[in-house]
Amino acid sequence: MAGLIEGDGSIITPRTDKSPSGTKNMGQIEITFSIEDFNLAIFIQKKINGRIRIRRNACILVIKKKKDLYNLITLINGYMRTPKIEALHRLID
Description:
93 residues
């Protein structure tokens, strides 16, 4: 999982805790798959939850819920080797 996120994933952390409208900003993790790997995206979605968005030639697995993020972070913590580890630490904080 850590390799998928480091290769074709994004760790998105909000800059502020709340938006101007007052809603709480949440971080998210996105993993992009080629449309040919749609079955793999569904398999991973069943294991860690999240939702799948379809774009032209890609499908994107988005993990946003706090419980799902916690489970995924628990799985990948300690296995990341690229600078994306800093974004993971910001997401944890």
